[in-house]
Amino acid sequence: MQQAGKNKTPSGARNLIGAVACALLSITTTAHAQPQAASGASGTVVQGRVTALPVAPTVPAVPAPPMPQSASIPPGASAPERALPAMPVPMPAQPAAESSSASSAAEAASAASAAEAASAASEAQAPEVPLPPEPPEPNLAQRTGMQPAGAYAMRQTFAKEVDRRLTVPVADQQAYGRLLQHALDEDGHGDLANEFVVLVDRSANVQAVFVYFRAKAGDAWSMIGASPVSTGRPGTYDHFVTPLGVFQHVPGNMDFRAEGTLNEFKIRGYGARDMRIYDFGWADGERGWGRGGKSPMRFQMHATDPEKLEPLLGMRHSKGCVRIPSTLNTFFDHHGILDAQYEARASEGESMWVLKATRKTTPWAGHYLVVVDTGRNTRPAWSPGPGKAVRAHIPAGADTVD
């Protein structure tokens, strides 16, 4: 065992070691400070000292919402950041209380208040600013003054290509035309003409979509065709009432296509592969659960599972989106019924990857989806809902898809 006295260092040696250490520390400090001063990152060198500058706190980037698993984009194409359709977006965490009194107040909250806060935390707060309306680009017919005979002939095309159709009496066709005009007037588009418009009645006793056209402002709107739909069903968590209003279809909220994959309940929520999802961006949706109120939701129109959920069209059943028949989805897509703005961007050389090369876009392509609610107390005979046999066999998990 060593003796304590033999571990001491002579004073001369200690002085020499201290001088060397100071020199090394000075060199290291200067070398460390120079790159910082050159880059202007976090400090300056003042007379051999490193003076720290205040650094702004780093704000973590908000991760982009995930793309729905059943959606796809072609290789090499870019898609906009998007949230799950018709779903609340989680709110950011609230900052910690700055005082002990605030903390005590939070701890004293009742169980009911805590439950309400938990619900509010899941409600939507859009992670992006909704796009402002775009100046509508004129379609081919509007640019060239094309005669409207071909637009009215689309009735025959609709009857041939869409297999889920509603036979709407003339009186109701006219009534919905007037309702459409009123909605356009309220939104500042009362002079809209020479293009197709898609109208949805979200009333629980109707659940229908209509295609309308008129040649010039002041004319009555004429119905091209109608089909059953399913809109938002309140009463279940995360289910919104489909929003009312006039919605512009713009590439800023880029559409995408379904992959046709099955979820855990063996349901294809967006329908068969290649079905188009029409994205209208963020909209204020009325929450169908809790105490109600409104939250931003991603509003879309799309097909649904052709075997399990398409038979349910005609009743409210979605999370807030508009579900349409698969053949109507194909009709809209192939003829570009709502693609005026997409075609304008494509003609300018932009990559509109969602548009198919085989499409035959109508010269009367439109810009707008309009949602109304007639509030009918009884169901009209021309818009029957799903029968008892269909309702009796609603598949498990059917209310978990959009």
Q: How does this structure look, described?
A:
The protein has helices at 11-39, 100-107, 111-122, 140-144, 149-152, 154-161, 170-186, 326-335, 340-347, 388-391; strands at 43-46, 49-52, 71-72, 197-201, 208-213, 222-228, 240-241, 245-248, 256-258, 276-287, 294-302, 322-323, 368-372. It is of the alpha+beta class. It has a domain at 154-400: L,D-transpeptidase catalytic domain-like (Beta Barrel). β5 and β6 form a beta hairpin. The radius of gyration is 31 Å and the shape is globular. The N and C termini lie far apart (79 Å).
Write a brief caption for the model.
With 402 residues, the protein is α+β, with helices and mostly antiparallel strands. It has ten helices and 13 strands.
- The class by helix and strand makeup works out as alpha+beta
Total beta-strand segments: 13
Which CATH top level class of the domain at 154-400 fits? Mainly Beta
The CATH superfamily label of the domain at 154-400 reads L,D-transpeptidase catalytic domain-like
Computed over alpha carbons, the radius of gyration is 31 Å
Mean pLDDT: 80
Judging by the overall fold, what is the CATH architecture of the domain at 154-400? Beta Barrel
The best one-word shape is globular
Give the topology string: H per helix, E per strand: HEEEHHHHHHEEEEEEEEEHHEH
Report how far apart the termini are: 79 Å
Largest sheet: 6 strands, mixed
